[in-house]
Write a structure and sequence with these properties.
Uridine Diphospho-n-acetylenolpyruvylglucosamine Reductase, domain 2; globular; Uridine Diphospho-n-acetylenolpyruvylglucosamine Reductase, domain 3; 4 domains; Alpha-Beta Plaits; 7-stranded antiparallel beta sheet; binds flavin-adenine dinucleotide; 458 residues; alpha+beta; 5-stranded antiparallel beta sheet
Length: 458
Amino acid sequence: MVKGAFIRRLRKLLGEDGITTRVEDLLCYSFDATQEEYLPQVVTFPQNTQQVQELMRLAWEEEIPIIPRGAGSGFTGGSLPVKGGMVVSTERLNRILEIDEENLTVLVEPGVVTAKLQQAAEALGLFYPPDPASMEFCTIGGNVAENAGGPRAVKYGVTRDYVLGIEAVLPGGGMIITGRKVMKDVVGYDLTRLLVGSEGTLAFFTKILLKLLPLPPTTGTLLALFSSREQAGDAVAAIIRSRILPTAIEFIDRGALEAVRRYAGIDIDAQAQGVLLIEVDGEEDVVMHLLEGVARVCEQVGGITRVAKDQAEAQELWRARRAISPSLVHVAPTKINEDIVVPRSLLPQALARIEALEGRYGLPIICYGHAGDGNIHVNVMTDRRDPEKWSKAQEAVRDIFAITVELGGTLSGEHGVGITKVPYLSMELSPRVMQLFKGIKGIFDPKNLLNPGKMGLG
Ligand SMILES: Cc1cc2nc3c(=O)[nH]c(=O)nc-3n(C[C@H](O)[C@H](O)[C@H](O)COP(=O)(O)OP(=O)(O)OC[C@H]3O[C@@H](n4cnc5c(N)ncnc54)[C@H](O)[C@@H]3O)c2cc1C
């Protein structure tokens, strides 16, 4: 329970504008993209590592839950204060501290918005590949805590593949630095990798060291139109089999195309039941060669292809892709957005089996996403205020997960567990693995103060 004395100590530490307990402010930090709401008792805005250390020490003494928060764009409730307590926002920890052009690294604070980092790197001819569709507002801290991915993961991997080291504050206020500015490091356990994807449950990141790449000289974008979801899935499997490695292979189904047309005003195609948005990169001749190869494979499985004639058309296609998630909000009062992953060769099977659930439950199930990784956003469109529709949606979600696990897949490729996937964890993880997770949590956070109630850890 947050008491007046605790608030006074926080105020002394952070100053009048470094903390708020006003209900209208607390409300702004009570939700994320899940549409669930939990009100914190206090929100703080530290500006440096020392302040985070002090905050963590005070919370430890008073046994107050601490919830790290970036932009609050998570889809599984990771930044929600489900047990009350103090939300610690990273919005004032938002500096790019150093871009090292000699070593191709960048040191950032966790509140840096992902697209801002990309722009800063690109201005120097450098490249930070992870590109979640939320990159215009999500933060690097949130990306590291969720191990975020994006369309470019097909060729370049996910956030984890770019994190070289982390400065983090532990519950109680102790600080650790994992990793360093080197490309190889095998001294001891890989704590950096353990922290990546830890969903704010092990430590609060205060600085993050990332790897950069040279910016690819040029990109090319191709749109492939298909007469069914399954056919589009076949094309993905065929591209992977063909040994061509595009930068991105994004799938969009009819429902998502329709939502973007109606609510974002972008009309990609009026007929297609499924489309693939494919990007390749490299030197100009390589790009041409890759585009020809991808078009050939898509046409062989029955698709119709079109190469974007210039950057403006390519940008418009990507704008449509990024507009899907916000557009779907208008399709039904509640969307349950799952982000399953299956082996890429089994994507056509997964799409067909999920499509069959639409008929069984009488609810639209809209699919889109990072098909090149076998990672599909499956959106069950429902209304949580209608008990019948809500219960059907829950059953549909369980079936979707059952199909996924049966095909050798995983419940989440990007969004993590948070609170929403906890009921389904046992479908994928054995009791022994869960026991190990809890043991690790207990070592980092013996009082269970850091982001409690998440990931099935208690
Ligand atoms: C429209 C839309 C599109 C999206 N597209 C994608 C996509 O393509 N790929 C993808 O992976 N995700 C996507 N997401 C989900 C979301 O944007 C990502 O999970 C993102 O990484 C969350 O970042 P955030 O800054 O909003 O973090 P939050 O939602 O604020 O927090 C997420 C988790 O990170 C923890 N955290 C935040 N900062 C720290 C820190 N400094 N130290 C320790 N823990 C911390 C929080 O406690 C929480 O558990 C999308 C979301 C939306 C709304």
